[in-house]
Write a structure and sequence with these properties.
Layout: H1 5-23, E1 26-27, H2 37-48, H3 65-77, E2 81-85, H4 88-103, E3 107-109, H5 115-118, H6 123-126, E4 131-133, H7 144-149, E5 156-160, H8 173-185, E6 189-194, H9 201-204, H10 208-212, E7 217-221, E8 232-236, H11 238-250, H12 259-271, H13 276-296, E9 303-305, E10 313-318, H14 322-336, E11 338-339, E12 343-345, E13 353-358, H15 368-379
Helix pairs in contact: 1-14, 3-12, 4-11, 13-15
C-alpha cells in the first residue's frame, strides 16, 4: 500500500517536534512523553531502588508493589482503602457506576468541561448507562447556589479539581465546602475527579486528607503531576473500593503485572509530591514575568489564565495560529535548546492559540531573567512580532 503523503508529513512533523523537545536541555518541566525507552528503564531502576526492594518478585494481579502503592495512597488521602486502576477513565466510570447502584440514581451532575464529558467519547452513557446534567457552563467549578437550583435530580456530584480545560482553576476553600454541602442537602454523594489533586494543597491551604474528606470517593492520577508512567487510584470506603475491584475486573483492568507503573508511582509520591507546593509558587512567578514580557513586547492581545495560577499549571493565549507558534517553538528548541511553550488551536476566536504551561523541577532553575530571555527569543521567531 502506498503511504498517504499527508499522513507521512504529519508523522514527520510529529517526530521533529518530539525530537526537538526531548533533546532541549532547558525546559520548565519534563514532559510525560519525553525521554527514551532506555532512559526510562535506567531511571526506573535507579530511582525505584530507593522506594522498593528490587530483589523481590514482580506483582501478580495486583499484589506486592501494587498493594503497597494502594496502601500508601489511602494513607496520604486519609481514606479507608484505595484500588489501583490502569487508567483514570476506567477508575471514574467504575466509581460513578457503583454510586449509581447505591443511590438508585443514574444521573451525575458535572461540569460540561470536565474530563468524562470532553475526553472519554461518551463512555458514561454508552458503557455505564449513566446520564449527565450540567449545573453551569461557566469556566469554573459549580457554585453552591447552582447545585441547589439545578432543576433535575441527581445522585452523584462530580467535581474536577482543578478544572483543567478551564485553565486549571479551583474554587476557594470556602466555596468548595459550600458546594459540597449543597450536594449533601440534595442527598447526593460527592466524587472528586482529582487527577491533579496532589497540587491543590497550596491553593486551599489544607492537607490532602482534609480535601479528600469532603468527598465520598476520590480519583487520583499517578502520571499527572507525579511523573509516573501511568495508572490511577480510586480511594474511598473499603466496601465501595472492594466493589470497584470487581468492576475493574469486568472492565478488563485486572492486569497480570503492573509493577513498572506502580514502582514509578511510588517514586513520584516520594520525590515529586513534597515539591509540588514549590512548583506552584514558582509557577506564579513565571506567569507574572510572562505577563510583563508580553505587555512590554507590544503583543496586541494576550491572556495569562488564571492571572495568578492556582496550581503549577496555567494557560497562555496569543492571537496567532497554533501552526506558526508551534514552528517558532520547535525552532527555539532546535536552535537554542530551550522549550517554553507547546501550542494548539484554542477553542476560542479564530486565529488564537493556547498553550498549557507547566512548571516542574527543571523550571525551578529559571529566574525571572531566564523567563524574559526565553520569551523574547520565542517572540523573535513568530512572524509579525518583530
Amino acid at each position: 500500500m502506498t503511504p498517504d503523503p499527508e499522513t507521512a508529513n504529519e508523522d514527520a512533523a510529529r517526530e521533529r517536534r518530539f525530537a526537538a523537545w526531548n533533546h532541549a536541555p532547558r525546559r520548565l518541566a519534563d514532559g510525560p512523553a519525553g525521554g527514551t525507552l532506555a532512559g526510562w528503564l535506567a531511571r526506573l531502576a535507579e530511582e525505584g531502588a530507593g522506594v522498593w526492594d528490587l530483589a523481590g518478585r514482580p506483582d501478580l494481579y495486583g499484589d506486592g508493589v501494587v498493594t503497597a502503592l494502594e496502601e500508601r495512597t489511602a494513607a496520604l488521602l486519609g481514606t479507608g482503602a484505595a484500588a489501583f486502576f490502569p487508567t483514570g477513565t476506567m477508575a471514574q466510570q467504575v466509581a460513578l457506576r457503583c454510586w449509581a447502584d447505591r443511590t438508585g440514581s443514574p444521573v451525575v451532575a458535572l461540569h460540561p468541561m470536565s474530563h468524562p464529558e470532553r475526553h472519554e467519547r461518551g463512555a458514561l452513557v454508552r458503557l455505564a448507562g449513566l446520564h449527565t446534567v450540567h449545573p453551569t457552563a461557566e469556566p469554573r467549578t459549580p457554585t453552591a447556589d447552582e447545585i441547589r437550583e439545578l432543576p433535575e435530580p441527581f445522585g452523584t456530584l462530580l467535581l474536577e479539581l482543578p478544572l483543567r480545560d478551564a485553565g486549571f482553576v479551583l474554587p476557594t476553600w470556602e466555596e468548595l465546602v459550600e458546594t459540597v454541602t449543597a450536594a449533601r442537602e440534595r442527598d447526593a454523594v460527592v466524587h472528586l475527579d482529582g487527577a491533579r489533586l496532589w497540587e491543590c494543597t497550596a491553593h486551599f491551604g489544607r492537607p490532602l486528607t482534609e480535601i479528600a474528606a469532603l468527598a465520598d470517593t476520590v480519583y487520583v492520577s499517578y502520571y499527572k503531576s507525579l511523573g509516573g508512567l501511568s495508572g490511577a487510584a480510586l480511594a474511598g470506603p473499603p466496601d465501595l473500593v472492594e466493589e470497584a475491584r470487581a468492576w475493574r475486573h469486568r472492565y478488563g483492568g485486572q492486569l497480570f503485572q503492573q509493577w513498572p507503573a506502580a514502582l514509578s508511582a511510588l517514586v513520584g509520591l516520594e520525590r515529586e509530591l513534597p515539591r509540588l507546593p514549590e512548583y506552584v509558587a514558582h509557577a506564579r512567578t513565571v506567569a507574572g514575568v510572562l505577563r510583563e514580557g508580553l505587555a512590554s513586547a507590544g503583543v496586541p492581545w494576550f491572556r495569562i489564565h488564571p492571572e495568578e495560577p492556582h496550581t503549577h499549571q496555567f494557560q497562555v493565549w496569543l492571537p496567532y495560529g497554533a501552526e506558526e507558534l508551534t514552528e517558532a517553538g520547535v525552532r527555539q528548541a532546535e536552535e537554542d535548546g530551550t522549550v517554553l511553550f507547546r501550542w494548539w488551536e484554542a477553542p476560542g476566536p479564530p486565529g488564537t492559540a493556547m498553550a498549557e504551561v507547566t512548571v516542574g523541577a527543571p523550571g525551578l532553575g529559571w529566574g525571572p531573567a531566564d523567563v524574559r530571555e526565553a520569551l523574547s527569543a520565542f517572540l523573535a521567531r513568530v512572524p509579525g512580532t518583530g
